[in-house]
User: Fold this.
Amino acid sequence: MSGQFHKIDALIKEKSLKSSDALYVTTRHMKEGKIRILALKSDGIARCEYICPNCMKYGYGEAPWQRPFSIPCANCGGKINVPKMREQFKREQKAEKAKAKKKQRA
Ligand SMILES: [Zn+2]
Assistant:
Protein backbone atom coordinates (compact mmCIF):
# COMPACT_ATOMS: atom_id res chain seq x y z
CA MET A 1 0.00 0.00 0.00
CA SER A 2 2.86 2.36 0.78
CA GLY A 3 3.84 2.11 -2.88
CA GLN A 4 0.83 4.30 -3.61
CA PHE A 5 2.44 7.20 -1.82
CA HIS A 6 4.26 8.60 -4.81
CA LYS A 7 2.78 12.03 -5.49
CA ILE A 8 4.78 13.90 -2.88
CA ASP A 9 7.96 12.06 -3.79
CA ALA A 10 7.39 13.00 -7.43
CA LEU A 11 6.89 16.64 -6.43
CA ILE A 12 10.10 16.68 -4.38
CA LYS A 13 12.02 15.27 -7.35
CA GLU A 14 10.38 17.52 -9.90
CA LYS A 15 11.09 20.72 -7.96
CA SER A 16 14.33 19.42 -6.39
CA LEU A 17 13.01 20.44 -3.00
CA LYS A 18 15.23 20.53 0.03
CA SER A 19 14.12 20.12 3.63
CA SER A 20 14.66 23.86 4.04
CA ASP A 21 11.88 24.48 1.48
CA ALA A 22 9.37 22.73 3.69
CA LEU A 23 7.20 24.56 6.17
CA TYR A 24 6.06 21.28 7.61
CA VAL A 25 6.52 17.68 6.69
CA THR A 26 5.21 14.59 8.40
CA THR A 27 4.01 11.05 7.94
CA ARG A 28 1.47 9.84 10.47
CA HIS A 29 0.05 6.43 11.00
CA MET A 30 -3.43 6.26 12.42
CA LYS A 31 -5.09 3.20 13.90
CA GLU A 32 -6.39 2.69 10.39
CA GLY A 33 -5.07 4.74 7.54
CA LYS A 34 -2.05 6.90 7.03
CA ILE A 35 -1.32 10.47 5.98
CA ARG A 36 1.71 12.18 4.55
CA ILE A 37 1.92 15.96 4.48
CA LEU A 38 4.30 18.34 2.81
CA ALA A 39 3.65 22.04 3.26
CA LEU A 40 5.86 24.38 1.28
CA LYS A 41 7.19 27.73 2.45
CA SER A 42 6.80 29.16 -1.05
CA ASP A 43 2.98 29.00 -1.09
CA GLY A 44 1.87 27.83 2.38
CA ILE A 45 -0.07 24.99 0.79
CA ALA A 46 -0.05 21.53 2.30
CA ARG A 47 0.04 18.60 -0.09
CA CYS A 48 -1.50 15.53 1.46
CA GLU A 49 -1.48 11.91 0.46
CA TYR A 50 -3.49 9.57 2.56
CA ILE A 51 -5.15 6.27 3.09
CA CYS A 52 -8.48 7.41 4.47
CA PRO A 53 -9.24 5.92 7.90
CA ASN A 54 -12.96 5.98 7.02
CA CYS A 55 -13.02 4.32 3.59
CA MET A 56 -9.46 2.94 3.43
CA LYS A 57 -8.97 4.42 -0.03
CA TYR A 58 -5.95 6.32 -1.28
CA GLY A 59 -6.42 9.98 -1.97
CA TYR A 60 -4.55 13.21 -2.61
CA GLY A 61 -5.53 16.73 -1.70
CA GLU A 62 -4.17 20.23 -1.19
CA ALA A 63 -5.20 22.77 1.42
CA PRO A 64 -3.73 25.86 3.09
CA TRP A 65 -1.48 24.72 5.91
CA GLN A 66 -2.85 25.40 9.38
CA ARG A 67 -2.97 23.83 12.81
CA PRO A 68 -4.82 21.78 13.76
CA PHE A 69 -4.88 20.35 10.28
CA SER A 70 -7.57 18.26 8.65
CA ILE A 71 -8.53 17.53 5.08
CA PRO A 72 -11.71 16.09 3.55
CA CYS A 73 -11.32 12.69 1.92
CA ALA A 74 -11.69 12.92 -1.87
CA ASN A 75 -13.42 9.54 -1.91
CA CYS A 76 -15.93 9.59 0.95
CA GLY A 77 -15.88 13.23 2.06
CA GLY A 78 -15.02 12.23 5.62
CA LYS A 79 -12.75 14.51 7.57
CA ILE A 80 -9.23 13.19 8.07
CA ASN A 81 -7.61 14.62 11.16
CA VAL A 82 -3.90 14.58 11.69
CA PRO A 83 -3.16 12.95 15.05
CA LYS A 84 -1.65 15.38 17.50
CA MET A 85 2.11 15.36 17.75
CA ARG A 86 1.88 15.24 21.54
CA GLU A 87 0.12 11.87 21.46
CA GLN A 88 2.69 10.41 19.14
CA PHE A 89 5.44 11.86 21.33
CA LYS A 90 3.92 10.23 24.42
CA ARG A 91 3.83 6.86 22.70
CA GLU A 92 7.47 7.23 21.72
CA GLN A 93 8.42 8.24 25.25
CA LYS A 94 6.72 5.11 26.56
CA ALA A 95 8.61 2.94 24.10
CA GLU A 96 11.88 4.58 25.12
CA LYS A 97 11.19 3.93 28.78
CA ALA A 98 10.42 0.28 28.09
CA LYS A 99 13.69 -0.01 26.22
CA ALA A 100 15.65 1.59 29.07
CA LYS A 101 14.11 -0.82 31.56
CA LYS A 102 15.14 -3.78 29.47
CA LYS A 103 18.70 -2.45 29.34
CA GLN A 104 18.86 -2.10 33.12
CA ARG A 105 17.84 -5.71 33.57
CA ALA A 106 20.43 -6.99 31.14
ZN1 LIG B 1 -12.56 8.28 2.71
